[in-house]
Structures are given as C-alpha cells and as structure tokens.
TrEMBL record, chain A:
This is ASP external chaperone domain-containing protein. Residues 1-22 form the signal peptide. Residues 47-135 form the ASP external chaperone domain. It comes from Pseudoalteromonas luteoviolacea (strain 2ta16). It holds the Pfam family ORF_2_N. InterPro entries: ASPCH. The lineage of its organism: Bacteria, Pseudomonadati, Pseudomonadota, Gammaproteobacteria, Alteromonadales.
UniProtKB/TrEMBL annotation, chain B:
GO terms for molecular function: serine-type endopeptidase activity. GO terms for biological process: protein processing. It comes from Pseudoalteromonas luteoviolacea (strain 2ta16). One of its GO terms (cellular component) is membrane. This is Regulatory P domain of the subtilisin-like proprotein convertases and other protease. Belongs to the peptidase S8 family. Furin subfamily. Residues 455-602 form the P/Homo B domain. InterPro entries: Galactose-bd-like_sf, Kexin/furin, P_dom, Peptidase_S8/S53_dom, Peptidase_S8/S53_dom_sf, Peptidase_S8_His-AS, Peptidase_S8_Ser-AS, Peptidase_S8_subtilisin-rel. Keywords: Calcium, Hydrolase, Protease, Serine protease, Signal. The active site is at D81, H118, S354. PANTHER family: NEUROENDOCRINE CONVERTASE 1, PROPROTEIN CONVERTASE SUBTILISIN/KEXIN-RELATED. Residues 1-22 form the signal peptide. The keyword Protease applies.
Length: 145, 602
C-alpha cells in the first residue's frame, strides 16, 4: 500500500508544481493613456493624456513624461519673472492679467478656466518687461506620509 | 541683586548640565494625563495602548529640557499638511496668526472632513500644550503653530506651494504673519522610475529649491529657518498603479533581499540640501518597518509601528469618536472613549515618517528657543553632533546575488554604523542617529563654535563614458579631483546613465578620506526604470566634517543577472494578489557622465 501511495503523491505533487509554474507572471506596465499628441512645456516634451482631448492644453490637462511615466497636471498658473523695476500689480492691471501671487520680481498669473495655456504663455512672453515664463503644474502622487 | 540672580542661575544651569552628562534619568514632569504613555517623549517600556511596550530609553529625551522650562517659546513652526484643527483644546493656546486655508481662502484651517486628520496629528507632535490637565504634550509645548492645507486635493498649485513654504506673497497680505523658523513637511511621493533633476526641463525644481534656500539662509536676520521633511514609508512595499490591474502595492516575498524598495534619494526634493530629511524608528529603538532610508537622511526620530501589536505615536486627533483616527479599523485601547480621553480628542495610532518629522521639527523649535541666536547652520550642526547611535549592532544589509558568469557573490548594500574621517557616525537607516533633545539643548545653551562661512560650490561635470558590466560585482568607477580646501557638510551628485533596468544599480561615492557612501541602494522599486538615469540627483551627509580636497570616486555596480518574482496586491478591489516578474536585462549599461557639488564651510 505504502509502495503505491508514494508514486501517487509524487504525481499529485508534480501536478501542483506544474500548476504553480503555469500561473502567469505579469510584467508591470505603466499607466500611459497617451493620446499620442506631443507637447512641449517649459522646454520638456510630454504627451497629452488620452482622457484630455484638448490639444490647446487648458487648466487641468494631464501630461505624461513618456521616459519616466510621470504625470503632471497644468494648474493654469503662469509663473513669470519680471524685470526688477516693474510693479507686478500695475503690470497685471495694464495687461488685464489675474495676479494671484507676487514676491519681489516673481509674479504668478492665473489663466481663465478654458484659456489655451500655450497661447496664454506665448502672449505673456511677448510683453515688455518679462524675463522668463513657465507654466505652473502639479506633479502627481504627492501624499501624506 | 541682578548679579546674584544671574550667578545663581548660572550655577543651577551648570549643575543641571553636569547632571545631563552624568546620564541621570529625569522623569517627565506631570500635568497631562496621557504623557505617561507617550513613549516617544520618555520610553519606560509602556505599551501606549497597544499590545506591548518597547525598550526603555529609546525616545526623544526631552525630560531635562522640559524641566528647565525650555519648551519652544518664541519659535513658530509651520505645518504644511492637510487641515488642522487649530482650535483643538490642546493646540489652540499655541495657534499663531498666519495659517491659511487654500480651499476657502480663509485663516480657518479646520479639517474639511472627519478623515482629514493627518495635520492635526502632526501639529500635536510638535506643539500640543503641556500642563493643562488634558491629553498629552508635544516636543515643543510652548512653540507657536501655523498651518497650511496645501496637501488637500485641488490646493497643490505653485502659488500655494510658495505661500505655504514661507515665500508669502507681497501683494496679498493675508494678515500679520508670525514667521516660522521651522517648516514641517510630512509628505512625499513613491516612485517607480528614477527622475531627472534638471532645472532646464523642470524649472519648478529651481523655483522650489531657490525658495527653500532663500528662506533657510536669509530670514530672521540671517539666522534663518529649517525645512524638515519626512523620508517616506516605502521600505517594504510601495504603492503602484498598473495599466492592467489598477492601484495597489508592490512587495517581494523575500522582503526584497532586506533592501528598501524606496531609497530616499529617489524623491527629488529629498535630495535637496535644503530639506532636513527624517527617517523613523520604533519603540524598540530600531528602524520602523516601513521607513524609507538612504544617504540623504539627516537624523531619525520616533515614528513607531501601527499602535496595535506595538506602539505608535500618541498625539492630538480630530475631535469626536467618529472622526480622525478613532474610528480606524484595528483600534487600539485608547480609541473609542477611554477614561483618559472621553471625548476622543487623541489618537494612539499616528505613525509613519509623517510622525517622525514633526518630532524633529519640535526638537528644532526647542533648540532655537534655548538659544535664539543660533543660525540654521548651527542647529544642523548641533543635531549632527548630538544625535545618538541607536540599533548599534545592526549589521547593515548584504545583497547576495548571482553574477552573470554564474558565481554567487555578496555586495554590502547598506553598511553597519560607520565613523567617517571627521569622527561623525552615520548609518543609511538613521543618518547621524536619533535626535537627543537634552543633549542638543545642552550644546545649544553653551554653544561657542564658529562653523565658518557657508559655501555652495558650482556643479562640476565629470565625463566618464564607461560600460557598466551586467551583473558584475566589479562595477565601474570614475574619479574627480577637488582642489580647494573645504569642510564638507553634504555632497550632491547627479548621474547620467544608460541602463535598461535601474533597479539593478548600486551607486557609491567614496571620499578622499576613504569613506564609502552608498547613495543609491540596489533593488529599489524602480521597476519601470528602463530608460536609465538622466541627471538623477542624490545627496549624502555621510562625509560631514571631512575635507573635500582630493580624489572623489563614483562607483556603479549592476547587481542582477536573473529574473525576480514579486507580488502586486490590488489593495482596494479585494482581488487576489497577482504574481509579477521583473525580467532580467542582459545589456551592459553606460555611465556617461556625472556632476558633483559640495555644501560646506571655509
């Protein structure tokens, strides 16, 4: 009896082993719902997330850095470095910009909700007294630890 | 009479100071019903409402400092977090003008929901009031508090970041602002691929780094401020969102060879010199199981475990038995209306490096209070010089792996405690060690050290162009000679590496004195890192006090030649765990170039 049981156990054991090894093992893949539309923001290339179809990029548009899979969301802010003698409040008033922050020669202007941000950035860049402009964005994944 | 009092005070102070050196144990002064259970202030082996206690003496060591009445008065701490119940009965006496709620643009920082609890817990660890007959107390129970709910969804804009991190707006004076000398940031990210630290491609990095440098170096008449940051909770598992399986956690059945999934240098802002990064230890005086670690950890502080089978941190909670931590799954004995906390205003389950960071923020407030003339650089030095070695016998972590040629080899990925050439002890788990408030305050009160002029050098580019052999312990190296006289505070490196599996890579920096710092541990959770490292930045404090002059060596080692199995746990869906595999790459990598800069003193 014992003699017969051992081969049986061996068969069952090998069946289990075969099942375990047959269980598929997946490779992790990034969530990259890319729309395929490439955009350049602040000098870096991104692709627009598929869920956002607006190529003009409005506030809330999600962008993916395809080399790292990092997603950033446009906040609608324009972070502007002004020439040192320019008063940001007067600058905003003269150019009908919504000033939400100023400290020294750094000012942040908020775009209108559905404004095309690349156009907004380009328009502000052309204004006299502007040294440097970057689109504001939120980098994904910040959480309490 | 004045002369006599001054002399008497000096004698008393000198006596207490001498006693501090004699390691006399002082009890915590009574006056708060939960203070006897706050092991992080004084660990007597109490269970802190969990199943068991820890190891006596493994704590912040505040007793003498508090007994001398040094409790953070005159120093304000900023809590950059979610909402804060600033009118909590144990916080309101320390509330100062300047808090801001970005959600509704008002100074009312009240939590937005019953689960918006994190900021209230963090605030209590820093500065819950003492001697008022309720709850416990903070490390700095007379420090001021302001808060900013930057972490709340929708508030993470650049303007709000600047406003909450001390760069308050000129044109929009919210109200008079009690300017903080310490900023607590109990937040961070989990990363599955290395990131670039490039000012050209990501100008926000420069905006933020410049802001923190300016606040650190120029505020308070040049005495400055300090940004404290949590290291993260990614040692054993990390959150990950997979395209096929959704959100979940990654973990390894072999505990990832004992190595951290998240190295603190993966998070960009943790590799900034201007953040003082804190890891967590538990009531046994060992690394909290979750704590992210690495060479940019400056010090360690209590973060505890989970408050169920072993202690977490007791602190203020959003009021009410149906709010905050009280209704959490797996309650501990304090929760739900304990006689010592009948209104459920406190929690005994706060944990994480989120809890460790405010312990250090409170300690800094106390140190600054003990000697307001100290600069930010002095305070950092005091912490480095007085933090104590814990978990003294920890052997480090050796990674055993099969080389591409088939030979089994061992790589010391995390060293045991090391003493560098300047005599400072350092461990990648704990930085300079566990903060010891009494020792730090003692040094602060009689501080007479001139550290010299602070210097930040330019980045020096080193072209390497050498192949990194796949799965070979020998690795590659590249050298750089620094010719100036400089005492090192920290060293920052950025690397450019072509590689198709960054998880395999260990990166070391070796000083002219021969001290080795592993600035990137191998087998991190960068499972998506198949595009190498482009200007990936790392910081190390390992060389503190050493001389920069001489030959610096960067080594890169590929430590893997086999597939690795791991688990994806879909946390929310209730689905079974999924077997995953990280495929081995067989290509050699290339160390293209790297740059180095020093933060130090002349």
């Amino acid at each position: 009896m014992k003699f017969k049981l051992i081969p049986l156990l061996a068969v069952v054991g090998s069946l289990y082993a075969a099942q375990a090894s047959a269980q598929p093992a997946y490779e992790a893949t990034a969530v990259s719902n890319s729309s395929g539309v490439s955009v350049n923001v602040n000098g870096k290339d991104y692709v627009l997330a598929a869920s956002k179809s607006d190529q003009d990029m409005v506030t809330g548009a999600a962008l993916i850095d395809v080399s790292t899979d990092e997603t950033v969301t446009l906040t609608g802010e324009l972070v502007v470095e002004l020439e040192s003698l320019i008063n940001a409040k007067e600058f905003a008033s003269a150019n009908r910009l919504n000033l939400i922050y100023v400290r020294g020669n750094r000012a942040i202007f908020q775009a209108a909700p559905n404004a095309a941000l690349l156009t907004f950035k380009s328009d502000v860049e052309k204004l006299s007294g502007v040294v440097n402009v970057q689109l504001g964005f939120q980098v994904e994944g910040l959480e309490a630890e | 009479m004045n002369i006599k009092i001054t002399k008497l005070a000096f004698v008393v102070a000198a006596s207490l100071s001498a006693n501090a050196h004699a390691n006399i144990e002082y009890p915590l002064m009574p006056g708060d019903p939960l203070v006897d259970q706050q092991w992080h202030l004084k660990n007597t082996g109490q269970a802190a409402f969990s199943d068991r206690g820890g190891k006596p003496g493994e704590d912040m060591n505040v007793s003498l400092t508090h007994a001398m009445g040094i409790m953070g008065a005159g120093v304000t701490a900023a809590v950059i977090d979610g909402g804060v119940e600033i009118m909590h009965p144990d916080l309101r006496d320390n509330a100062r003008p300047g808090s801001w709620n970005f959600t509704n643009n008002s100074p009312d920082l009240a939590p937005g929901s019953p689960t918006d609890r994190h900021g209230t817990a963090v605030s209590g660890i820093i500065a819950a009031s003492a001697f008022n007959g309720i709850g416990g107390r903070g490390v700095a129970p007379r420090a001021g508090l302001v808060g900013f709910n930057y972490l709340v969804s929708g508030n993470q804009t650049m303007a709000n970041w600047l406003q909450s991190h001390g760069m308050y707006s000129d044109g929009f004076a919210k109200q008079s602002f009690d300017f903080p000398r310490v900023f607590n940031q109990s937040y961070g990210r989990t990363l599955s691929s290395p990131r670039s630290f490039d000012y050209e491609e990501s100008p926000w990095l420069k905006t933020y780094e410049d802001a923190q440098e300016e606040i650190t170096r120029t505020t308070h008449g040049g005495r400055g401020a300090i940004f404290v940051k949590s290291a993260g909770n990614g040692y054993e598992r990390q959150s990950f969102t997979d395209s096929k399986f959704g959100r979940g956690y990654l973990r390894f059945d072999n505990y990832n060879h004992g190595l951290p999934l998240q190295n603190v240098n993966l998070e960009r802002m943790d590799s900034s010199f201007w953040n003082l990064v804190v890891s967590a230890y538990n009531a046994d005086g060992e690394r909290s199981s979750y704590s992210t670690v690495g060479s940019s950890v400056f010090v360690s502080a209590p973060g505890g475990q989970y408050g169920t089978s072993s202690p977490a941190i007791i602190t203020t909670d959003v009021s009410g038995c149906d709010a905050g931590y009280n209704p959490l799954w797996l309650r501990n004995d304090l929760h739900g209306g304990h006689p010592l906390d009948p209104n459920c205003d406190y929690s005994a389950r706060s944990n994480g490096t989120s809890a460790a960071a405010p312990n250090v923020a409170g300690a800094i407030a106390v140190i600054m209070s003990a000697n307001p003339a100290l600069s930010w650089l002095d305070v950092r030095h005091i912490l480095a010089a007085t933090s104590r070695r814990i978990d003294a016998d920890h052997p480090g972590v050796a990674l055993s792996f099969k080389e591409a040629g088939g030979e089994q080899v061992s790589y010391q990925a995390i060293d045991a405690w090391q003493t560098n050439a300047a005599g400072y002890q350092f461990h990648n788990f704990y930085g300079f060690g566990a903060v010891d408030v009494d020792a730090a305050v003692n040094l602060a009160r009689f501080y007479d050290k001139n550290l010299g002029e602070f210097v930040k050098t330019d980045r020096e580019l080193v072209t390497a162009g050498v192949e990194i052999p796949d799965g070979r312990l020998s690795g590659v190296q590249s050298n750089y000679h620094y010719a100036q006289d400089l005492t090192v505070d920290a060293v920052q490196v950025r690397v450019n590496i072509d590689h198709t599996s960054t998880r395999d890579l260990a990166i070391e920096l070796i000083s002219p004195s021969g001290t080795r710092s592993v600035i990137m541990t191998p087998r991190t959770g960068t499972i998506l890192g198949n595009e190498g490292m482009q200007n990936t930045q790392m910081l190390t404090h390992h060389f503190y006090g050493e001389q920069a002059k001489g030959e610096w060596t960067l080594r890169v080692i590929d430590t893997a030649s086999e597939d690795e199995a791991y688990i994806f746990d879909p946390r929310a869906s209730g689905e079974p765990n999924i077997n995953m595999v990280h495929r081995n790459n067989t290509e050699n990598g290339v160390l293209k170039s790297w740059d180095i800069r020093f933060f130090g003193r002349k």
